[in-house]
Amino acid sequence: MLDRSIGEFSRFLIIALGCLTLGFTTSEWSLTLILGLAAYLLSVLWQQHRFNRWLANGRRGPAPTAFGIWGEIYDDFYRMQRRHRREKQKLHVMLRRVQDSTSALREGIVALENGDHLAWWNPAAGELLGLQSSDQGQSLVNFVRDPGFVSYMHSEDNSPREPLTLPAPGNEALHLQLEVTRYGKDEALVIVRDITRLHNLEQMRRDFVANVSHELRTPLTVIAGYLETLQNSDMAPPAWRRPLVQMEEQAARMTTLVNDLLLLARLETSERKTGDVSVDVRELMERVAREARSFSGDRHQVSVACEGDCSIRGDASELHSAFANLALNAVKYSPGNGEIQLRWWQDNDGGHFSVRDQGIGIDSLHIPRLTERFYRVDPGRSRDSGGTGLGLAIVKHVLLRHGAEMSVHSVPAQGSTFTLHFPSTKLEESPSRELMETEGADS
């Protein structure tokens, strides 16, 4: 660029010196210089006009022919234009390949811009969500009106989340799974999957478990009743005593399993919105501690540490089930005379309930799978302790319905600590504490 400027400046000097020489020869050097410079200026303006007209015409065709610096500018722009066209063609080919490949996918893909406005989608997404070409630029929540999805799209939290499962817009029989990934500035990619078959299979499984469990309750009740009658009467020979006791134990264990299956089925199939009553945490912990001591037969030391009076808004029976399952598990897997501590405390993150034992502990390899149905760290020991393998699965579903989470810290042979974390939105001051504060203020 510097060489071009020097060359053009040299050309200007040559013209100026030529005009001066001609002017001194004709004794009209000033007029000659003015005319020469005017001619140079007109040529520059003319080249600029041609250049502007070429640009205004969309740079179609080759650049105008010129000499000097303008010729070099034309050549540079023409080369840039050709390179730009080649890159544009490559981008078009690449975009076409991407569109063809995404059009062949079964999953729907929706590209969003400006937060939640439709920018592009493949045919599968258009079919699943009922989108048409005229919908481009509109907000996606205008078509997917599920409250959970609307709340997610309007949330400022951009951290990865679990996919959302909801009915298809305009077709309740079709179930979709939507996974949103944000990128760039106010841009997002939505993956839409048709999970109707999986949903129906899961519903069939839940119905089967619930129906079978319900049907088993009646014969189990009859069997347990006859066993109890035989044990309490003189009809059974002495040799039958031990088999009758074992049969009664197994009947009781099966009854517990059926009850847990029914509870889990109810938690899975009922609406996610749970009860909204005030449950006193201290009272709940004391009740769970009494049940744990009774289950233990006073072989364990069960202590309660509740920091402050607080209540949780939710379903009382579900919360009791979650707390009791953790406490009874601690009794099952702790040696005699072991200490089990139930603790509640609050901080800026919400309320926390923990159960700490001095039992056998759990290897870190098993912790991610603890909440799976019938998963056992030690199958033989779990069966001897009378566990059903459903306790932690029930705890998981109760926490999901209360917007809470569970964390596990365990060291083999040193014990485990299970902690339930409840959000502050689920907590409220207990009436007893509010009354005490009011009476203290009045006094």
From TrEMBL:
Its EC number is 2.7.13.3. SUPFAM superfamilies: ATPase domain of HSP90 chaperone/DNA topoisomerase II/histidine kinase, Homodimeric domain of signal transducing histidine kinase. The keyword Methyltransferase does not apply. It catalyses: ATP + protein L-histidine = ADP + protein N-phospho-L-histidine. Keywords: ATP-binding, Cell membrane, Kinase, Membrane, Nucleotide-binding, Phosphoprotein, Transferase, Transmembrane, Transmembrane helix, Transport, Two-component regulatory system. The chain crosses the membrane at residues 12-42. Gene3D superfamilies: 1.10.287.130, Histidine kinase-like ATPase, C-terminal domain, PAS domain. GO terms for molecular function: kinase activity. Residues 211-426 form the Histidine kinase domain. Its main location: membrane. InterPro entries: BphY/WalK/GraS-like (IPR050351), HATPase_C_sf (IPR036890), HATPase_dom (IPR003594), His_kinase_dom (IPR005467), HisK_dim/P_dom (IPR003661), HisK_dim/P_sf (IPR036097), PhoR_N (IPR021766), Sig_transdc_His_kin-like_C (IPR004358). The keyword Ribosomal protein does not apply. It is found in: Cell membrane. This is histidine kinase. It comes from Microbulbifer variabilis.
